[in-house]
Structure to design on (320 residues):
């Protein structure tokens, strides 16, 4: 990519970096690291991001896996440990968010990392994301001993037919089992869920929420509207009008997962999707076993929006 008299010129895709160690470490010294904090069940923590690998072998339609490709490339263990020591010792940062697509895809690598963390006596907490069917109790125990406090799984939908459409071949039972392991070990778990996916209808969206309202092992879930980001198969589906999708808004500033939608799906307008999102969030977080974790994560003020929404809904019913 270059410019000529202010005009952007595209000269073709650049080759993927073969050796990740050739890339420089992030210039964290240029940031006010004390300004960045994140909430968790262990309180708010000053944190930074870190990436140990690029690429993902899976084909989920909503993910921009075209960006890094399906071939996995990793930093060497020496480079990873060097960056960890700079973060912990020099920057005095005590929480790290590993942004690798699949933290536990290479079990041998992640267990070797645990060995290095213990050997060098690096004291920090961390989190990341992976697939529920790539999670096991023995790995979870090892990671927790080295500082893991939170892991994220992409549940997405409870409807098998839609899981097939989005190419997410992970059974629901794997999420229940993985959450149960983490609850036993005291590891916070985030389960990301979406509505407005290919093939979604009002009934399938409510089927997913019904599942979440019964799954007591799942304490925390996000609930975003599916966004057809450029470079994703979901975007191409929406542009082609497949599986009930229709792209109605091309303004990139509207690509926000909460309170905004840019597609229609099977007759559900963006406005319908936003209302269904609000309804789903109210139902999901009205479940008593999710209230205490929500307060611990965000404070008592986190209860005010859903309570106020519930009051407004009751007033509407009364007035009608």
């Amino acid at each position: 990519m270059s410019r000529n008299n202010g005009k952007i010129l595209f000269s073709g895709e650049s080759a993927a970096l073969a050796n990740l160690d050739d890339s420089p470490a992030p210039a964290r010294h240029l940031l006010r690291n004390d300004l960045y904090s994140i909430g968790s069940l262990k309180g708010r923590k000053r944190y930074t991001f870190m990436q140990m690998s690029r690429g993902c072998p899976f084909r989920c339609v909503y993910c921009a896996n075209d960006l890094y490709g399906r071939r996995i490339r990793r930093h060497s263990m020496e480079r990873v440990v060097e960056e960890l020591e700079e973060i912990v010792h020099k920057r005095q940062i005590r929480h790290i968010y590993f942004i690798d697509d699949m933290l536990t895809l290479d079990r041998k690598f992640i267990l070797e990392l645990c060995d290095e963390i213990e050997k060098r006596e690096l004291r920090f907490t961390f989190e990341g994301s992976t697939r529920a069917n790539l999670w096991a109790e023995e790995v979870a125990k090892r990671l927790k001993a080295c500082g893991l406090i939170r892991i994220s799984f992409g549940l997405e939908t409870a409807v098998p037919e839609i899981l097939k459409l989005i190419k997410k071949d992970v059974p629901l039972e794997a999420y229940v089992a993985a959450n149960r392991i983490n609850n036993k070990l005291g590891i916070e778990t985030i389960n990301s869920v979406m509505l407005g996916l290919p093939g979604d209808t009002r009934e399938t969206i409510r089927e997913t929420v019904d599942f979440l309202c019964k799954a007591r092992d799942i304490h925390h879930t996000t609930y975003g509207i599916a966004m057809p980001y450029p470079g994703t198969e979901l975007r191409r589906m929406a542009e082609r009008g497949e599986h009930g999708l229709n792209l109605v808004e091309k303004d990139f500033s509207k690509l926000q997962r909460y309170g905004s939608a840019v597609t229609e799906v099977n007759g559900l307008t963006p406005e319908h999707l936003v209302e269904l999102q609000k309804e789903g969030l109210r139902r999901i977080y009205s479940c008593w076993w999710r209230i205490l974790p929500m307060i611990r994560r965000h404070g008592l003020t986190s209860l005010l929006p859903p309570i106020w929404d519930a009051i407004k809904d009751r007033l509407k019913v009364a007035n009608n």
